[in-house]
């Protein structure tokens, strides 16, 4: 039988990815922009599994979350752009990245309007705004209204859902 202290520790480890990025959110989902059918990528689960690593598939297609403070892009400070690991759509610029101390890469804006769709997420007993790639529908993370810049937003994104492309500037 597990001791109460051990149970609490196990619950904290299990819930850490859920609560570390905030529990409340006054930000409301904007209406997703409709993209042309030619621009939207639709693949079967088998095709996604063939293209993505098992970890990327878990995050992008099954709406999973990587453990906090483990992502390869969390501490990246190089200049460049962040693309969707599923389809290559450019989503964020390094100019909008900041350290939010939540354990995942954070940005204060998408690179251009319509690159990211927002959806109400009521999973895990919380109300949050999920963000997905507008081109392939891949789960990226969540957006919160507690950002430190003039946008007031914090896009909290899984490193596994992104690829970084360094620029020469």
Overview of this protein structure:
- The strands form 2 sheets. The protein has a 6-stranded antiparallel beta sheet, with no helix packed on it. Strands 2-1-9 form a 3-stranded antiparallel beta sheet, with no helix packed on it.
- It is 18% helix and 24% strand.
- It has 3 helices and 9 strands, in the order H-H-H-E-E-E-E-E-E-E-E-E.
- The protein has a single domain (4-166), classed as Peptide methionine sulfoxide reductase (Metal Binding Protein, Guanine Nucleotide Exchange Factor, Chain A).
- The N and C termini lie far apart (58 Å).
- The model is unreliable at 9-21 and 31-38 (pLDDT under 50).
Features:
169 residues; alpha+beta; Metal Binding Protein, Guanine Nucleotide Exchange Factor, Chain A; 3-stranded antiparallel sheet; 18% helix
Please summarize the sheet with the most strands.
6 strands, antiparallel
Query: Structural class of the secondary structure composition?
Result: alpha+beta
Could you state the CATH homologous superfamily?
A: Peptide methionine sulfoxide reductase
CATH topology label: Metal Binding Protein, Guanine Nucleotide Exchange Factor, Chain A
State mean pLDDT (0 to 100 scale).
Answer: 85
**How do the SSEs run, as a string of H and E?**
HHHEEEEEEEEE
Mass-distribution shape: globular
- Give me the number of helical elements: 3
Radius of gyration: 16 Å
> How many β strands by DSSP?
9
First-residue to last-residue Cα separation: 58 Å
Low-pLDDT residue intervals, each spanning 5 or more residues: 9-21, 31-38
- Order the strands across the largest sheet as they lie in space: 3-4-8-7-6-5
Assign the CATH class. Answer: Mainly Beta
